[in-house]
Specification:
The complex is a heterodimer.
Chain A: E1 4-7, E2 10-14, E3 19-25, E4 31-37, E5 43-49, E6 52-56, E7 59-64, E8 69-74, E9 83-90, E10 98-99, E11 103-108
Parallel strand pairs in A: 2-11
Antiparallel strand pairs in A: 1-3, 3-8, 4-5, 4-9, 6-7, 7-8, 9-10, 9-11
Chain B: E1 4-7, E2 10-13, E3 19-25, E4 31-37, E5 44-49, E6 56-57, E7 64-68, E8 74-78, E9 87-94, E10 103-105, E11 109-113
Parallel strand pairs in B: 2-11
Antiparallel strand pairs in B: 1-3, 3-8, 4-5, 4-9, 5-6, 7-8, 9-10, 9-11
Classes of the chains: A mainly beta, B mainly beta.
């Protein structure tokens, strides 16, 4: 079973700061997902990547397959970015996604 | 575009009661999943359905049953609810099981068993 570790568990920052959330996993994967969950809300997929880097607006996700590590960056952070960010991996097997415990991000005005 | 729709959004049950959580997707996805989310833990897979007509156990299946009614619908049943089943439940779907395809999640069902 893949072990997915996220850091930090909690992060509080000021509006405008550059944010980095890290994810590491123990077993080779076929894809890694970054998900966002607002308080009391559903889960939304931000990125799915298997190599390199993807960018969507102020969000950037990178992955290093050799090091089994991914990062999610938020540039020019805003209070509306406050949410739990979840890393999940799939090995292409029959058991769907394996999830990290999430990073609780608070952006203060 | 409804995506993945779960009902109900909230439910309180007494220990021993039964209930069914409903999930439907309108994206013509083959694979559907039920997860539970508990404080301090990542989402854990309860059951999944790789395709219409098939279901399989995930990591934490005890106390639950599922039915893949058709390609759109995948329900989760608690036959005799226990306080340990207090959790937030998420249904999800993806185009193909195990492939590198995006997963879509419902809004969640917050279940309390007293």
């Amino acid at each position: 079973k893949n072990e997915v570790e996220q850091s930090p568990q909690n992060l509080t920052a000021q509006e405008g700061e550059f944010i980095t959330i890290n994810c590491s996993y123990s077993v080779g994967i076929s894809a890694l997902h970054w998900l966002q969950q607002h308080p009391g809300g559903g889960i939304v997929s931000l990125f799915m990547l298997s190599s390199g880097k993807k960018k969507h607006g102020r969000l950037i996700a990178t992955i290093n397959i050799q090091e089994k590590h991914s990062s999610l960056h938020i540039t020019a952070s805003h209070p509306r970015d406050s949410a739990v960010y979840i890393c999940a991996v799939t090995g292409g097997g029959a058991d769907g996604l394996t999830f990290g415990k999430g990073t609780h991000l608070i952006i203060q005005p | 575009n409804a995506g993945v729709t779960q009902t109900p959004k909230f439910q309180v049950l007494k220990t021993g009661q039964s209930m069914t959580l409903q999930c439907a997707q309108d994206m013509n996805h083959n694979s559907m999943y039920w997860y539970r989310q508990d404080p301090g833990m990542g989402l854990r897979l309860i059951y999944y359905s790789a395709s219409e007509g098939t279901t399989d156990k995930g990591e934490v299946p005890n106390g639950y049953n599922v039915s893949r009614l058709n390609k759109r619908e995948f329900s989760l049943r608690l036959e005799s609810a226990a306080p340990s089943q207090t959790s937030v439940y998420f249904c999800a779907s993806s185009e193909v099981l195990g492939a590198d395809t995006e997963a879509f999640f419902g809004q969640g069902t917050r279940l309390t068993v007293v």
